[in-house]
Design a protein that fits this description.
With 224 residues, the protein is mainly alpha-helical. Helices cover 62% and strands 0% of the residues. The protein has 7 helices and no strands. The protein is elongated. The protein starts with a helix and ends with a helix.
């Protein structure tokens, strides 16, 4: 079974899904900002930005599509790792699963591949922090939901954890001004998945899997 092939087909699908689905909302938002037809503002003296509701709806739609696609990227990576383990490793007992996945499934699979194949995942071309950022952001999307906003907030990361790439540029400026000794956010920043950060996360997963797949194949069958 060519596990990496199936993963890459999934990632290609996610990539085109986001680009195709977000295009009309990005176009609407751009036309409203540039006052292009059919979003030419009527004369008004009330001082309110014209078509604010339509602009916000388009912006929220792009955000939600980004959130959904990032969740699909994370689940695709997890499915790849699960499939490799099912194909090549003995089934873990419940006690072994608790030990291995105690610090999350990225660190858990690092233990499995290190013990089963002698392939520490941190030796690959992608840092485990980058992979965990995708997973932790997926968790925030699914669990840190507020009724009054379409954007979930990042759950507090542990002190010293790497900063997520899935942040709004304006919120990054605010975080830069925070006391660096602060270990928790008073108001956690919102999750922002842009076309660029989604593409970056897909590329990250593809580079990681290309390396891991080659390393596993070499361990199983020798140099080809």
């Amino acid at each position: 079974m060519d596990v990496a092939w199936f993963l890459n087909r999934r990632l290609d699908f996610i990539r085109q899904l986001h680009a195709t689905s977000s295009a009309p909302f990005i176009d609407r938002r751009s036309k409203i900002e540039n006052e292009e037809d059919p979003w030419i503002p009527p004369y008004s003296e009330d001082g309110e930005p014209p078509f604010q509701l339509e602009w916000q709806e388009a912006s929220d739609s792009v955000d939600v599509l980004g959130h959904m696609c990032l969740c699909l990227v994370a689940s695709s990576l997890q499915a790849y790792l699960q499939t490799r383990v099912i194909l090549h490793c003995e089934k873990l007992t419940e006690e072994e699963r608790k030990r291995v996945f105690r610090k999350g499934w990225i660190r858990g699979y690092n233990i499995i591949f290190t013990e089963a194949f002698g392939i520490p995942l941190e030796k690959g071309p992608v840092s485990l922090d980058d992979l965990e950022d995708i997973v932790l952001t997926r968790n925030s999307i699914q669990h840190e939901v507020e009724l009054t906003s379409m954007r979930p907030r990042h759950a507090d990361r542990k002190p010293g954890a790497a900063r997520s790439i899935f942040l709004d540029s304006h919120e990054v400026e605010l975080l830069e001004g925070m006391d660096q000794s602060t270990t928790t956010w008073l108001a956690p920043p919102t999750v922002h998945v842009s076309q660029q950060t989604l593409e970056s996360s897909i590329n990250t997963v593809q580079r990681f899997v290309a390396w891991l797949d080659a390393a596993i194949e070499e361990k199983l069958y020798g140099q080809r």
